[in-house]
Amino acid sequence: MASIRRTLSPYNDRSHQNGANTPFSPQSPSQKQFPQGKTTFSPVRRFVAGVFFRKHQTRKNFQFSWNKSLLRCFMCFFLGLLLGMAPFNSDFSELRQGDLRKSDFSFEMKPEVVSVQKSAGDLASIEKLKENDLLVGAVELGVVEKIDKTDMKKVLDFVSGKQLIVVSPTYSRAIQAYYLNRLGQLLRLVKPPVLWIVVEMNEASVETSEMLRNMGIMYRHLVCVKNNTDVKDRGVHQRNTALEHIERHRLDGLVYFADDDNIYSLELFESMREISRFGTWPVGMLAQSKNKAILEGPVCNGSQVIGWHTNEKSKRLRRFHVDMSGFAFNSSILWDPKRWHQPTSGPIRQLDTVKEGFQETTFIEQIVEDESQMEGIPLGCNRIMNWHLHLEAHGLAYPKGWVLPKNLDVVIPSK
Ligand code: UGA
Ligand code: MN
Questions:
Q1: DSSP letter string, 80-95
Q2: Closest C-alpha among 214, 222, 209 to residue 169
Q3: Is-above-0.90 flag for pTM?
Q4: Which of 196, 221, 238, 259 most suits a substitution to test ligand 1, by most atoms within 8 Å of the C-beta?
Q5: Partner of 56 at 20 to 30 A CA spacing, among 5, 130, 207, 298?
Q6: Per-residue pLDDT of the chain (415 residues; tens, 9 = 90+)
Q7: Is 260 in the pocket of ligand 1 (CB under 6 A)?
Q8: Whose CA is nearest to atom 12 of ligand 1?
Q9: Composition bias, kind Low complexity: at what positions (predicted)?
């Protein structure tokens, strides 16, 4: 691109020297060079030059060019004025001044009425149209009322939906991939916010880490480090690791202990959000013999817990007959006990020292004093929302690597 600043050309120097040009008019792109060596100027320059250096122009010529310019200027002005006043509406000639103003500045939407009246062609249809107009107003009011009662509640529930903190102890074995994926996929379907706290013993396994990474849900992968080899109930320590974590970080939500192998419905997780302090519900199970289904959990009158389903004699000694997967509670009980007038002091934890079958009741006794502080869900506690079947295949390890040593035989059908 050419630079605007120019050095003086040898020619310019020459013209300056021989006086053909004035010292105050350096050569510019607007200046055209004629073969004869004479220069011609743009109109502006010509005007400026005319003002300062009149010796090249007579007074008469100068006045003539000014008059011509002024005349052109006035002509353009009048032409513009006329164009500006002309309406762009083709019906301008038919409209009176008042109509013009109305059509240009009014925001009324009258065309529908006019066109429908014309097409209907009789009074009856006009009356019908008026009626419809009135009906539309009534429907609008109805919609507002409906949103107030039901839809708005749903919207607000979603916005302020309580976080679910789902705690799952897990360990490496062949069927773990199936269990963890099944539970993870279900949690993906639950409305957020959901936090899945998955706890392993001693170290985080590659398999669990990879599954959680690919699941697409919010999770925390924790490790429970316990030197004691004589652990009676390993799930207990892993759940306690999660409880410590929730307490330390003051995680806010509803805590639910979800073993990886249980069967859960989506409804369960949605219903849990109703809980304020401590909620419980009946869980479906198989009896020890595995040949009949039994229930464990509350008997309710509405949301009030009035009794318990229990089937085995030894379990009559328990205060509360609830399965580990049959209750959820507000996490702030762990880190803000005063707010809930908590019955015991000290951290709320699962106990490794209790007899089998007493784990749940001893834990719940730290959270509530009696049934009056419980909420039975769903209303009447009349549906089974999850199952605890005890069908675990404990001993089977993950196969060593997934790569096949040989390609599988391929059969290609010939035509
Ligand atoms: C029984 C009881 O019903 C539970 O109340 C008790 O908490 C549980 O045992 C336990 O040992 O923790 P059950 O279904 O027989 O439940 O136990 P599992 O399904 O074998 O394990 C429960 C949870 O702990 C599962 O999520 C499992 O993955 C996990 N777990 C189990 C471990 O993380 N490590 C283990 O060595 C065993
Ligand atoms: Mn189990």
A1: HHHHHHS-S-TTGGGS
A2: 222
A3: no
A4: 259
A5: 5
A6: 433 343 333 334 333 333 333 333 334 333 444 344 344 445 555 554 544 444 445 555 666 677 888 888 888 788 888 887 765 544 433 334 434 344 333 333 343 333 333 344 444 544 554 454 444 444 444 444 555 656 665 655 555 589 999 999 999 998 999 999 999 999 999 999 999 999 999 999 999 999 999 999 999 999 999 876 666 777 999 999 999 999 999 999 999 999 999 999 999 999 999 999 999 999 999 877 777 888 999 999 999 999 999 877 666 789 999 999 999 999 999 999 888 887 667 899 999 888 888 999 999 999 999 999 999 999 999 999 999 987 765 666 766 665 555 666 667 787 6
A7: yes
A8: 235
A9: 23-36
The one catalytic residue in 200, 247, 296, 360 is 360
Where would I find the H helices in 53-90?
A: 59-85
Q: Which ligand is nearest to the CA of 183?
A: 1
Asked if 140 is an active-site residue, the reply is no
Tokens coding 367: 């959270």
CA–CA separation, 293 vs 283, rounded Å? 10
Q: Where are the extended beta strands (E) located within 265-361?
A: 278-280, 283-286, 293-301, 304-309, 327-330
Nearest ligand 1 atom to alpha carbon 260: 26
- Nearest Cα residue to atom 7 of ligand 1: 235
For residue 240 and ligand 1, the question of a CB distance below 6 A is answered with: no
Of ligand 1's atoms, which has the minimum distance to the CA of residue 236? 12
Known binding-site positions: 261
| Distance from chain centroid for Cα 326 | 31
